[in-house]
Each structure stands twice: as C-alpha cells, then as structure tokens.
Amino acid sequence: MYDIQHYYEAKSVEDAIRLRVEHPEAVIISGGSDILISIRSGDLAGCSLISIHGLDTLRGVSLDPDDTLRIGALTSFSHLMKDPLILEHIPVLAEAAGKVGGPQIRNIGTVGGNVCNGVTSADTASTLLAFDAEAELQGQKGKRRVPLTAFYKGPRRVDIEKDEIMTALLISSKAYKDYAGCYIKYAKRAAMDIATSGCSVNVKLTPGKDAIEYARVAFGVSGPVPIRISSAEEAVQGKPLTEETIELFAEHVRAGINPRTSWRASRDFRIQIQLEMARRCLRRSIERAGGEIVG
Asked: Is the backbone of residue 85 left (phi > 0), alpha (psi -120 to 50) or beta?
C-alpha cells in the first residue's frame, strides 16, 4: 500500500500551476517510477501528489521555428528511443533512453521526471547536459529557461520554484547540428540497474574531418550532480584526431571528476572506469562524425 494523503489531478498546465500554489507541500507526479518507490520506502510517506500525467500537450518531440528541438517534459523514454526527430538529430539521446531500466520503466518514465528528480545517476541527464539543453519552466509569472548546467543545485535539488512545473527540454540547432555523440553506461547488470557511472561525449569535426572543432563531455555519478568537464572540452579544441588527443582528453577528465565510494563501487574504481569511458566515448563520437583516429 502507498501512504498518500491527498491526490490532485491537473487538467491543464495552468491548472497544475494553480494546484502548486494552493498545495505547496504536494509533490508533482507523472509516470511515478521514482516517486512511488520513495513513497513505498517511507521517504515520502504521507505526502500529497499533484498528477500531471494527463497533460498530453507536454508529450512528444517537435522543432520550433528556429529549429530548436523541443522535448516535452512528459515524453517517455520509449518515445525518445523511436522518435524520428531524435533519431535524425540526436540519436545518442535515443541510446541513453534505451539504457533506462526495463521496458516497463521506459514506458512510464518521463524525461522531465528523470531530470527533475535531481539524481546524479539519471541516464538521460548527462547526454542532455552534453548537448547544452535548457529546461523550460512555467509558473505564475510565465515561462523561463534555465541551462541544465545551472539547473542542478545539489543532490535531489533543482532550480524549480514552488509555483512552477517543467514543460519542456530545449536543445538549440547550434548545439546539435553537425555533432555526433556516444553514451556509455556502466552498471553491474545490463538492464534494470542504476548506473555505477555514465558518460556522454559529442564532437563536431572541422570541415576536413581531421581535427576536433568542438567537443563536449558530461558525466553521471562523478559528483553529487551530473556534471560537464569544461577543461577537457577546451583542451582538445582544434586538436588532431590522434591517440595523443584522446589521452589529453582523459587527463583533463581526471582532473575534473570527483566520484565517491558507495556500496555500488569504490571511488578508485569509478575513476578508472570513467577515464576509460571518456576515451571510448570520444573515439566513437569521432568515428560517428566521419573522422578517423591516427597515431
């Protein structure tokens, strides 16, 4: 049984905002794959819920007039895995979505919930970070946009005001056009397991496909929140496609990560696998972008 005090069902985004204002203690729920577990474990026992599950306007993927990819906050992982726009422009996000739990979880879990949960192990978070995604939030004062790099405030703490809900995740065309990426999840089991670590890299090569024009890298479970390693990104900008460049990338990744020891893995083990994940992700991203590593 689930210990729930009150359950409110929003009929529209505006209704959800009204309910948030009237019941500031209530927790937003859509798919429930995280919230219901927390209620059953006792962490959220006795809470009130505001369901936004019925807000179909917040589902699906579309292109804004400026070619910004708009991913509705209630879009399921199963939808992301097969959406034509995601497969065309950011196939690595479909790959990351496919790493979440099992089929049942992917069918009910939402990308907005995965991000708003604020956990460092969220499978889609590192890829969204690596593509400079922004959260679109709507409240009483209207809409605002927050880069995901600023959205995470700490473990399970995100930048959402008491009257707001997340309506979408936005990725500009500048952030995805001509980029190719790779996501690797490390876990003890192939499915139905929380990530011991996750790494997402994407690159844009120079026109001649012989050097890195831009690179981005983000990690899950490498700190209290999903993080970008900007020093590694800057270190390889303009560098040739060589093994030396890949090792330079890994060196800067090492300086930027700070994983912890837990029952899942020790800090030293996480550092070892995260460095190897960074190397492999960069290699695969280069290959997918049409480059060839030499030396």
From this structure: alpha
Residue 181: closest CA among 291, 91, 245: 91
> Which CATH code for domain 58-174?
3.30.465.10
Better-predicted residue by pLDDT, 161 or 193: 161
In three-state secondary structure terms, 117 is: coil
Fold classified for 4-51: 3.30.43
User: How far from the centroid of its chain's Cα atoms is residue 70's Cα?
Assistant: 14
The percentage of residues in the chain with a pLDDT greater than 70, rounded to a whole number, is 98
Cβ(128)–Cβ(93) below 8 Å: yes
Structural domain spans, the chain: 4-51, 58-174, 178-288
Structure tokens at 254: 């090492």
Do residues 181 and 287 touch, judged by C-beta distance below 8 A? no
159: enclosing H helix or E strand: none
Closest CA to 105 of 80, 132, 130: 80
Q: CA-based angle 28:34:35, to the nearest 5?
A: 40
Residue spans of beta strands (DSSP E) within 119-211: 134-139, 142-147, 152-154, 157-158, 165-171, 180-186, 197-205
Burial class (CB in 10 A: 0-12, 13-18, 19+), 261: exposed
Mean pLDDT value across the chain: 93
- pLDDT over threshold 90, residue 188: no
Residue 262, Cβ density class (10 Å: 0-12 exposed, 13-18 middle, ≥19 buried): exposed
CATH 3.30.390.50 fits 178-288, yes or no: yes
Handedness of CA 185, 117, 227, 137 (dihedral sign): positive
pLDDT digits over 109-129, tens only?
999 999 998 888 888 999 999
> Per residue in 55-85, pLDDT tens?
999 999 999 999 999 999 999 999 999 999 9
